[in-house]
Amino acid sequence: MTVATSDRAPAPAAPDGASRPTPRAPRRRPRRGTVARYAVLCLMVVLLAGPLLWQLSLSLKGAGDTLYERPPRLIPTDPTLTNFTDVLDRVPVLRYVGNSALVALMAVVGNIVGATLAGYALARLRFRGRGIATGVFVAALLVPIETVIVSQFLVVRSLGLTDTLLGVVLPGAVAALNVLLMRNAFAGLPDELEEAAVIDGANAWQRFLRICVPQVTGVITVVAIFAFVGAWNDFLWPLIVLSSEESYTLTVGLNRLRGTFYDDPRLIAAGTVIALIPIITFFVLLQRFFFRGLESGGIKG
Amino acid sequence: MSSSTDLAVRERAAAPRRPRAAGARATHRWRFVPWLMLLPGLAVVITFIVLPFGNTLRLAFTDATLLRPGRWVGLENFERLLGDDRFLTALLNSSLYVVCVVPFMMLLPLVLATLVSRPGRLMGFFRTSIYMPVVMSSVVVGLIWTSMLDRRGLVNETLATFGAIAEPVPFLTDRWLLLFSAMFVTVWMGLGYYMVIYLAALANIDGTLYDAAAMDGAGVVRTFLSVTMPGVRSTMALIGVLSSVAAFRVFGEVYVLTGGTGGVGGRNLTMTMLIQREGTGLQAQTGYAGAISLVMFVVLGALLVVQLWLQQREGRTR
């Protein structure tokens, strides 16, 4: 497929034929340009996917494989799954995955509920103090998390939540950025939408749940996905809060892999592959939302 | 069942021209509804961001530790910082990170975005592949590259195969090579993120400009320099600031590549790593860490002011 496409004219027609014509340079030039374009892109794919493939290969190499071979060999000669079972036996990776999943789930629920409610109130209800409330969220958005992390730790400690998953979730349970994103989404809805409902006697809760929320599900999805990925990948904060192995999230647990399996890169590779499977699956399934989220201004600080 | 807000909307429904005026006429039962809706968000943000920020400001001027509330010591922490080699090293490392990483983040993703900004399945595949590392955790990426850059990792073995090196390159142990390796990993992870932002900006460039450039016989490079670059100028500035902030805050990659040690003698500590070290755990010197946090806030705050200024300027010229 690659070969066929790269040989063709510069504007590869989309399957539906909807691509707009791109009349650029005269006929001869784009051909060379196209070859260069694909060469660069393929190089990038090798650079980006290569290390991942190498990890996969390492994780599958068995006792019969020479680890350090010149030239290095990508395809294992003695493929095996024992590295995976070894890692799972010696390190509670599945427990870490479970903890991370729980944290991510709580973060998603917290952000959806908290940001949607607050966003609606800020955008569509009028009350005294609305400006101040908006200001609090904007100010919070501008504070880099690293500069308050020590004080956050003191708060979590005084709440008695150190070494708990709840302590990991709470500071990010409702992100200011998400509140403001939801506020903008609700503010973009036309006034007429609610006016009819008001005439029918709907109160604020009913208008919120039945009329406005269904209109902004796209933004809610984006908020949910970024909350999930953010919580799943977070490292600094769980590293600070968690101290016992049972409560480790995946990132904190993985960080210890290198110390545990210093002598065997195959086991570390198996650990990273186990860690990558869920998030890459998640990404591939939902990739259109990732791109949409970034384009709609969901720029994280 | 009427509320202040019901009234507000109802009035507008009845007489759309009238200015909004209902806020004050709240019936008591519904006045608290907006605050009830705001409660979860405000509670989290105030407890974990606003108040902690105030507390950091206070801590910075005390000699507090985790177990001792501490007393006011004025600027003592900051004087101590000036003589603390680890702090100066961390400040240097984080600043170098900004200087070295940001140019790559401003240019490479733009080149990639121009290459993949056309329809088609294959282009979708390239976009997805380049974006993939963005969703991976810095710990996993750090582990992968630790393995790649190890003394006997793929990179060294490949170089040795071609006879390019006699001795393994100490990517993970040399003070400067380690820092540059971490920067490389950061760029590797971040390309896709900024590429997507550029893609949105590219979509806004007037297509006829490209036609005109083609008519004038401009080549690929010329077109890039005189149409694409000016067209995304404001996005480029924004990405410059965003990536500066991100680079100064770097933590995960460096932490994992150094195995959590910050390099031999802490020579590869970054600002965030230093805060994490000094300010948490049982030996935490929360006052001193507060002072480091404050320095970090000032640097990032300055970058933020630049960002806001850029955005405002952009808003005016549009």
From TrEMBL, chain A:
Protein name, entry field: Carbohydrate ABC transporter permease
Bias (Low complexity): 1-22
A GO-annotated cellular component: plasma membrane
Entry's family note: Belongs to the binding-protein-dependent transport system permease family.
Record InterPro entries: MetI-like, MetI-like_sf
Coiled-coil intervals, chain numbering: none
Transmembrane segments: 35-54, 101-123, 135-155, 161-181, 211-232, 267-286
Cellular localisation: Cell membrane
Region span, Disordered: 1-31
GO BP annotations, alphabetical order: transmembrane transport
Keyword field: Cell membrane, Membrane, Transmembrane, Transmembrane helix, Transport
Span of domain ABC transmembrane type-1: 97-286
Membrane topology of this protein: Multi-pass membrane protein
From TrEMBL, chain B:
Keyword Flavoprotein: no
Primary subcellular site in the record, as a coarse category: membrane
Name of a matching Pfam family: BPD_transp_1
Region (Disordered): 1-20
GO terms classed as biological process: transmembrane transport
Membrane topology value: Multi-pass membrane protein
Superkingdom of origin organism: Bacteria
Domain ABC transmembrane type-1: 91-307
GO cellular component, one term: plasma membrane
Sections of the chain in a coiled coil: none
Subcellular localization, as worded in the UniProt entry: Cell membrane
Keywords, alphabetical: Cell membrane, Membrane, Transmembrane, Transmembrane helix, Transport
Record-annotated membrane-spanning stretches: 32-53, 96-116, 128-148, 176-201, 232-251, 288-310
Keyword Nuclease among record annotations: no
PROSITE patterns recorded: ABC_TM1
Family from the record: Belongs to the binding-protein-dependent transport system permease family.
Protein name: Sugar ABC transporter permease
Provenance organism: Cellulomonas triticagri
Taxonomic classification: Bacteria, Bacillati, Actinomycetota, Actinomycetes, Micrococcales
